[in-house]
Amino acid sequence: MRNLRIVFMGTPDFAVAILDALIKAKFNVVGVITAADKPAGRGRKINESAVKKYALKNNLHILQPTNLKNNAFINELETLNANLQIVVAFRMLPKIVWQLPKYGTFNLHASLLPAYRGAAPINWAIINGEVKTGVTTFFIDEKIDTGTIILQEEVLIGENEIVGELHDKLMNIGSKLVIKTVKQIELNKVKPLKQPEIEEKAAPKIFNETCKINWNASLNTIYNLIRGLNPYPTAWSTLINNNEEIKVKIYGVKKEFEAHQYKIGTIITTKNEIKVAVTKGFIKINTLQLSGKRKMDAKSLLNGFTFHGNALMQ
């Protein structure tokens, strides 16, 4: 059995769950590499990554390089004498870093590679209406998410599942897959497989414009976009209400297939309900947030906000 010395690299909550699983499984994590602290919010308060906060609580050795090719960082990394590196939701590594440990550097990716290579695989799987996704561990190479596959596990996506729910499901299953992967490496039983050559579905970084709803799209396309961005980074639209333009973030929705004669984007309200007319039906908005207001359910908003007769989403 190999005596593993592990360096873990990650930044958000998704990575914390995997690091916690490694610590609870009693693996020897000799160092944690995470993003540098940065000011955030209106007060520009210095913000530490979720992984750093966890590492501090557990007295783990922390490195926060701004440049992964910096000689001082490389020297410090070498002094840790790690023979395995694990990467979860971090950043692209230079060859000088990923080739350093004797037993390699592997990554946990939240898709069934080679599908959905890139920064936002969980969002795009739902946005594209997939019925299944999964998690993959693979050895890192020169390109993004292209290395040899160690293990994979498939996960079904519910018809109405939102990205927040799928994120947590994949985080838990991914934690177990990483432990299984480390145990195989520890016992020298890994048999990596080259990724199959298939037409790729990409998972690029999501920008503000990606999140804007096109109300002329099909009912299912709109529905999948909204649930694929709920709760973060959140789909949005512009509400035109009596010549006033208001940015609206849209969270929980339902879809209703129904023939109608309304103009696309028309808002229909009752005392408790907000619906937007789309092709072949309506998007019923259950939870939303108007610019400058708190997030609330439709009934609460309707108690204090008036949608005029010509109100429109665009």
Please give the structural blueprint:
Elements: E1 6-10, H1 13-24, E2 29-33, E3 38-40, E4 45-47, H2 50-57, E5 62-63, H3 71-79, E6 84-88, H4 95-98, E7 105-109, H5 121-127, E8 132-139, E9 149-156, H6 163-186, H7 219-227, E10 235-241, E11 244-250, E12 253-257, E13 267-269, E14 274-278, E15 281-285, E16 287-290, E17 296-297, H8 298-304, E18 312-313
Parallel strand pairs: 1-2, 1-6, 2-5, 6-7
Antiparallel strand pairs: 3-4, 7-8, 8-9, 10-11, 10-18, 11-16, 12-15, 13-14, 14-15, 16-17
Describe it.
- By secondary structure, this protein is of the alpha+beta class.
- The protein folds into two domains: 6-186, 3-Layer(aba) Sandwich (Rossmann fold); 208-313, Roll (Methionyl-tRNA Fmet Formyltransferase, Chain A, domain 2), CATH 3.10.25.
- The chain is 25% helix and 27% strand.
- Helix 4 (95-98) links the parallel strand 6 (84-88) and strand 7.
- The mean pLDDT is 96.
- It has helices at 13-24, 50-57, 71-79, 95-98, 121-127, 163-186, 219-227, 298-304, and strands spanning 6-10, 29-33, 38-40, 45-47, 62-63, 84-88, 105-109, 132-139, 149-156, 235-241, 244-250, 253-257, 267-269, 274-278, 281-285, 287-290, 296-297, 312-313.
Mean pLDDT: 96
**What overall geometry do the principal axes of the alpha carbons give?**
elongated
Q: How many distinct domains?
A: 2
Number of strands: 18
CATH homology superfamily name of the largest domain: Formyl transferase, N-terminal domain
Tally of DSSP helical segments? 8
Kindly identify the CATH topology of the largest domain: Rossmann fold
Distance between the termini: 61 Å
Q: Spans with pLDDT under 50 lasting ≥5 residues?
A: none
Most strands sheet: 7 strands, mixed
Q: Write the H/E string, N to C.
A: EHEEEHEHEHEHEEHHEEEEEEEEHE
Any idea what the radius of gyration is? 23 Å
